[in-house]
From TrEMBL:
InterPro entries registered for this protein in UniProt: ITPase-like_fam, Maf-like
Compartmental location: Cytoplasm
EC code: 3.6.1.9
A single GO BP: nucleotide metabolic process
Catalyzed reactions: a ribonucleoside 5'-triphosphate + H2O = a ribonucleoside 5'-phosphate + diphosphate + H(+); a 2'-deoxyribonucleoside 5'-triphosphate + H2O = a 2'-deoxyribonucleoside 5'-phosphate + diphosphate + H(+)
HAMAP family, per database record: Maf
Similarity comment: family membership: Belongs to the Maf family.
Species whose genome carries this gene: Micromonospora echinofusca
GO cellular component: cytoplasm
Listed name of the protein: Nucleoside triphosphate pyrophosphatase
Keyword flag Isomerase: no
Requisite cofactors: a divalent metal cation
Amino acid sequence: MPKSLPLRLVLASASPARRKILQAAGIETDVLVSGVDESLVVTERAEELCLELARMKAQAVLTRLGPADDQRTLVIGCDSVLAFDGEILGKPTDAADATRRWKRMRGRSGVLHSGHCLIDVEAGRRAEAVASTVVHFADVSDDEIATYVGTGEPLAVAGAFTIDGLGGPFVERIEGDPSTVIGLSLPMLRRLLAELEIPITDLWTKIAPGSQTVELLG
C-alpha cells in the first residue's frame, strides 16, 4: 500500500463527543452512523460487550464503503459501557432509570470500558482493543441528581454521566485516560494505528493561527 495516498478516517458513531475528541486532536473525520442493534450482543463481561459492539459498528460501516484507488480509508468503531457493582450499564432506559443509577453510584466508583475497532479498508487489516478507566463519582445530593437528569444529558450516554459536559462536576476524579471516558481513547487510537503501520501524525490537519481554515497535511 503506497504510503503517499491521502488518509480518510470514517467514524462509525453518531456521538458528537467522539468526533469532538478527534477534532481537538487535529483529526478531521467523516461520520457514518452504523445503525447496529446493540441488543443483539449478550454477555456478562463488559470488556467483551463493548469490543464486540465496536466491531459490529465498524463492520456495518465497512460494508457501505468500497475500496478506493486515490485514498486510504480507515474506519473506527467505538462503544462504551460502565461496569458497576457487577452490572453492565449502557445508556439508561429513561429518566427514572438514570435517577436510580445515580443514587447507587454517588460516592462510589465504577470502571468505564471503551472498545475500539480500527479497520484499514484497502489493506483488509484491522486492529482492536479495549481501554478502561476507573471513575470516582461525587457524593451528589438528591436535588443535584434530579436537576442533572432533568437536563436529559444522562439519558444519552453510557453510564448516565459525562466528564466533558454538565456531568463533569459530579465526577471527583478518574484513574486513567480521560478520553476513554468520553468514548474514544486517543492513546489507544495511536497504538492501533501503529499496529497498522500508520503514524497518528499522518492524520493531523493544519490550522493556520487565528483562522478556522483547515488544510490537510500531505
